[in-house]
Protein 1
Amino acid sequence: MDSARTKPIDQLTEAEAVQELTALADEIAAHDIRYYQEDAPTVSDADYDALKQRNAAVEQRFPHLVRDNSPSLRVGAARSEQFAPVEHGVPMLSLDNAFSDEDALEFDARVKRFLRLDGEVAYTAEPKIDGLSASVLYRDGRLVRAATRGDGRVGEDVTENIRTIGDIPHKLSGSGWPSEIEIRGEVYLGAEEFAALNAAAEAAGQRTYANPRNAAAGSLRQIDSKITAQRPLRFFAYAWGLFSTPFAETQWEALQMLKAWGFQVTPQSRRVEGVEGLLEAYRYMEAERPKLGFDIDGVVYKVDRLDWQQRLGFVSRAPRWGIARKFPAQQARTVLEAIDIQVGRTGALTPVARLQPVTVGGVVVTNATLHNADEIARLDVRIGDTVILQRAGDVIPQILSIIPEERPADAEPYDFPHLCPCPLKTEVVRETTASGAETVVRRCSGEFACPFQKLAHLRHFVSRRAFDIEGLGEKQLTLFSERGWLNSPADIFRLHEKRDELLALDRFGETSVRNLLDGIEARREIALERFVYGLGIRHVGETTSLALARHFETAEAFVATARAAADQTAGSLYAELSDLEGLGPTALAAVLDFARSRPALLIPASASLEEHLRLAIPRLNARARTALAERFGDWASFEAAAAQALAQTPGEAFQELASIGTVGVVAARMIAAFFAEDHNRAMVDSLLGELRVIPAEKPKSDTAVAGKTVVFTGALERMTRDEAKAQAERLGAKVSGSVSKKTDLVVAGPGAGSKLKDAEKHGVQVISEEEWLALIGG
Ligand SMILES: [Zn+2]
């Protein structure tokens, strides 16, 4: 960074300002090319915005120095030569940015000043989609041409590519559309689709995209529209350019028209009043952001009345009637000071980055997850490196990349520990799945001998949703296991034998020891689902534990089947097929049935594997056929694999486990693996020797809510969410976390948000907590 760049603007000499503006223009132009033409930016949006802001500030102080090619006079960059130029009927301009509540207040004040209004102004507040703007021209309701924004005046002709996007109608529906109109909106890629696209590119050894926006831009700007067609691009319409006849009086009305003509408009958009409304809409969009499934980078405010928009007009290149309120940067750079290793309950070693504190999206961040050794190797992150940190919603912050130029000369590659940091110093091994494949997870091979694992395991065992034993916190557990009193969960129930030793400890008086032992005694009777959950088997969470408890009813029945399943685990190919994404249980059964019966078939030799599958196994759906075709490639490989998988079909006990409610093959394999270990069986036996496990209650089938799917949302006043859930389930209802068309009932308390909207959308009945209690007679 040169000296001028860091110098406060009010201290720049005129000569320095000239130099600075030249440098900024070059730098911004270079970024624009990487961003707009190569879809491969090298700086964060925040850094880019900072350059533009500095340029604008220098120009403001030295207005006579504004260059002809000033970045502030341009929107976007020149188009690429690959596409034919298209002149927009009306230029595609971008909005000015706002970064704070004050900016929003100022915007509202400016609008009112200009229009000489006293009352509140109505605005629309729309999510600012982080994609690629496009303009689609319709004549007599038919799509005739589509263009990217380009430099705002002339864009690139991407008509053929735009035609491949499902959200963009080739023919407008409804009525009332002008005979000629340019529809404008954003081409974007959903978060899941982006991840899948990058995963596929990575697997194929191709270049990956930095973010969904670049992926959308790269996908839309393909020379071959067949490639674009394979990308799951989407489109939200929100504006228009040229139009032959007026069709709406307000922005809000116009959005409804766009919808009626067959476009998607963002469901989060709202019409708001005055400055209060603007600020409230911003908070709402901020809260919705992590749940949307696509990237937004702010909120767009527009004056609702189109005649007022007209009066407000433009100042230089941006409209006066609208503004883009941007979210604070979700990325920041900081220095990685250390990498710590944490050992979890299952012995997995998780590296955690310790960072120089930095504010990201309004929150101070000091740690970030590094996931695993492979991730450290992939990032090539070293202690002392400057890193780019990302925080998205409530997710744990993660490190996106490092800045190689800023690496200290003495930084050495990180050596992932080969020994567990526990006092045992046992060897660290790569975790394998039940089918024998290596995973990215490294774990301590010490199992229960590893004190870190033992502690994490005991912590889980006494946690609130498992045995819920008060007075046994981390400190006590550590102390007692150091003394050798706690080696396995069963030892907790033998702590009373150590009463005298406990009393001899510092800070353990008569009362606290009595309370502790009483607390433990109270848990000698335990519900089966808590017992199962407390075992801490991987992939066996609360829901799965409950399903197991309901199915087996007694601990003995569960343990007997789990032990039997331990000898019947599915073979690797069977396991792989049952895990194959796109191949559900029904499709797997169809494949195995086929392998069993081997019907004689007359299928043309030229048939692709997908066609062959369609003819040979009609019960397979398209998704399953694609999944199998991608995995096996040709018929002979598939046939051989199906036969092998059939031979590897697990035994009855295993299948019973896997078929229970939410358990599934993955958790069943974990249960089988758990009970295959001698020390685990001994641990369970010894624990059962101490306990009376209360058989699970079968859910009732004769209540008003039996068999119904219920969603609780908002604050409940008479009971906690957990209680409500447990009670509903006892009464035979299914409790779900999200509203879909399968939901029967939404119980909404104060503060219910998006789920209420979903209920409306799906026409699901909504009742209050009182009405719910009346319904169940509680
Ligand atoms: Zn260890």
Protein 2
Amino acid sequence: MAIIAVYSPKGGVGKTTIAVDMAWRCAMRGGHRTLLWDLDIQGGAGFLLGAEPNQHPRAASLFQREGNARRLVCSTRYTGLDQLQADPSLRQLPLQLARLGQRSRLSWLTRDLRRDYARIVLDCPPVLNELSEQIFAAADLVILPLPPSPLGARALDQLRAEFSRRDRRHPPVLPLISMFDSRRKAHHEVRNGSMAGLPMIPAASPIEQMAFRRTPVGVFAPSSDASRALDRVWREVETKLGELNIPPV
Ligand SMILES: Nc1ncnc2c1ncn2[C@@H]1O[C@H](COP(=O)(O)OP(=O)(O)OP(=O)(O)O)[C@@H](O)[C@H]1O
Ligand SMILES: [Mg+2]
């Protein structure tokens, strides 16, 4: 069982798109029972999977003392893939978590779900606050999408600095270049320079189309270059998880 957080303090870098694709691949390609947990009030993950919004906003209620994640889990159109949708109740979550004073609330909730799922993918909001602390405490692996620009490299440095100044355990981070445009010289410069050797996801129309079709790219364009690139990233994540020797439940 592994918890994969798709996280970046930067907004709009492809987190939700990657989280949905990753969860879909874990379930459909890897055959793992997978839960996609949307922690971002924007609710993009459910949208990309074609889900209807929750009638009763209670995503944040899970984090209360009596909260039970299983009660809010919904199935998706895809075999082996369930989801926990976001809704407007998450607005208060960082405050609620701080008030609860339980730094490990998210870890505790995910631990409870470990029996049901082999993979839990967290779609994270672009924040550095109480919620990101809980995400770092819960995750076995953090996928960090970075735009191919000096600001992307800076976000990586900032996260490393953030981790190194903490005395608590932090999960391993898999940085990757997101939205790489091969026509841009500047992108090549970054890819060959400060981000050399990182896995890369191209800026590509089929990936963008996920939001219009509300369907994972692997369903409607499985042999596109874009889907193949995402498949390579998923494989890299699986390899990394294998190396981590995560103890079984
Ligand atoms: N590789 C890609 N190629 C083309 N378009 C992409 C790619 N990845 C994401 N997009 C598009 O970029 C936009 C932002 O993507 P996404 O919502 O996944 O980012 P995010 O990091 O989750 O944003 P936020 O910080 O707001 O949660 C969306 O319109 C999405 O369709
Ligand atoms: Mg997002």
Protein 3
Amino acid sequence: MSFWDRIKPAPPAVTATDAQLSSDGVRLDLTWDDGVKTDATAQVLRQQCPCAACVDEWTNKRTLDPSKVPADLRIKQVQPVGNYALAFSFSDGHTTGIYPWKLLRDITQPAA
Ligand SMILES: [Zn+2]
């Protein structure tokens, strides 16, 4: 996949109105204020973690190796951060990522 294929049209500014974790913690379902529902697995969310331990703050280069994130990773807890983001406690002990709405909208997929 080329770099340009990854660029999506800029989505409108949206806010999630509901975040539901599946009972096994593997999948997060989001409902947005424009009525759209999206979801993502814990693995995808962890792979896209924006924190300073996973992305180099100076070069913006991802230092986390996505292949090291197991498919059976779970989310243990979802915490709202103000009204602009969510933070997750992952089963691998990682808790430092803060996911603003725009990032969550970008990395989750429309629910079938
Ligand atoms: Zn991180």
